[in-house]
């Protein structure tokens, strides 16, 4: 639009990330995290076809410690724990991604509408956001999940209700600062409709930081979903889900492997995605994404 | 439109010489506006809970009386009458709000006790863990954050970063189980679940927090017992919170360390230690304090998962039982309480800004 330094430039998000990667990748910790995250995504895709046993069939001896045949041991119903942990990756990671994408879309839409239209629209939407933010996250998700009935899909819905507000807040504040920018005003002078202005001028500039925020949120989403399943409000029993596998371990403290392996699985997923998000944030722009 | 009008605004101009007389009318007006906002938010919380539990397919009556009793229309009828569920929804809701003004949170369907009474028992139990965890986490977080900020980019910074990311990435319910099975089940060095050993009687109630009450009563044996039971749940919650606070302190301190006045103090030859404690820490206190408030809120939420493992009879256990039974009034009670705490902390922090950082004028 103009090349004076004061204007917020339209720079493609992917290009900025691309430029930033080499510097970040040199950091050993970030590199390892990236590899682990990549490993989990691969497991997520091909996992079910490489596992040695069916994760649902209960035909092995019960509560056997890890051995050459069953690497992670067997659970209280005679199922292979390794197969269940691997199969659980698809459940947890794909649902966490679904949750993050959904809350990003809903939160950003609300934030854009609030910031763009201002006045009473802004007031109503932001008070709504405040209410959800003031409500204790786990408790609200718990009530929703309990009310909807325990199922994985309902757990995602319940988690969605508590996870959109931060996006709405951040996107709104970005829109507020963008709205006054010269290139947005010039768009308006060119006769852009609000929709066109949002699509052409606002969205491209809001998208990058929001994506970074979302990448930092994947770990949280996985934690919340597995927490709900742990409480018995998510995955139903035969489903290989890490949270519910851990809750089964509570009754068998002697069989340490029951809790350790699914727990380590959650940890490595959350840690690696958190590190990735962290590296992305550092690389992208530390100032812009701060909540 | 008022963008974030409820937030105190930082005023960039230098303080005027007349600033010594603080204007209290501004502060009062600000407090009034915040109070109205708080009430609106609390009503919103009740509305959200009420709508959720009524619009969704789950049947609270069946959840409360059990499936077999729910098939008997007479029992259902009696239950609905007892708890006013036979009235239209709007009447139920406004009836609740009306009683709420008098401090009556209704009766729990599950325990058949007034919700206020249940909360009175659960809150001190949770506060005992939450307060000790936030204190520990703040101390550890500040120390680790300062070290990381001073050695930015060095190996110790990286290690601390790893530890703090680990802290927020490990599911609390998993660490709780690990701690419990390692320190109690295997090593036997920590006491088991609950707030006191079986057979021990609770100290006479003053605050409801057993450690403090037993100290007041001068009962050292009960104090040691209560404190020992506190260690594991506190440890689990500290681990989670310390990650958050370390990351944030590091960020806040780094920002201040870059400022000109810090450089000037160094140039003047002041010892690093006194620069840190007198200037840097004080300037970074505002954002760190904000984060402590937020962390405390999420700590209260986090107790839900931890308490169930340690059989700790606090808010979290209560909320979990209430939510899984769709015990509407109990859930609203918990939601309101945590909401009040969260909003009050934020308000106190916003007011404290003015005292820590005189450039921030509340209510202007």
pLDDT under 50 segments of chain A (min length 5)?
A: 1-10, 286-291
> According to CATH, what is the class of chain A?
Mainly Alpha
Shape of chain B: globular
The biggest beta sheet of chain A, please?
none
Tell me about this structure.
The complex is a heterodimer of chains A (291) and B (364). Mean pLDDT of chain A is 78; it is low at 1-10 and 286-291. Chain A has 11 helices and no strands. Helices cover 72% and strands 0% of the residues of chain A. Chain A has 291 residues and is mainly α. Chain A has a single domain (35-59, 69-288), classed as MetI-like (MetI-like fold, Orthogonal Bundle), CATH 1.10.3720. The two termini of chain A are 29 Å apart. In chain A, helix 9 (194-230) packs parallel to helix 10 and helix 10 (242-249) packs antiparallel against helix 11. Chain A has helices spanning 13-25, 28-50, 81-117, 119-134, 137-148, 152-163, 165-179, 182-189, 194-230, 242-249, 256-284. Chain B has 364 residues and is mainly α. A two-stranded antiparallel ribbon of chain B has the order 1-2. The model of chain B is unreliable at 1-21 (pLDDT under 50). Chains A and B meet through helix 4, helix 5, helix 9, helix 10 and helix 11 of A and helix 1, helix 7, helix 8, helix 12 and helix 13 of B.
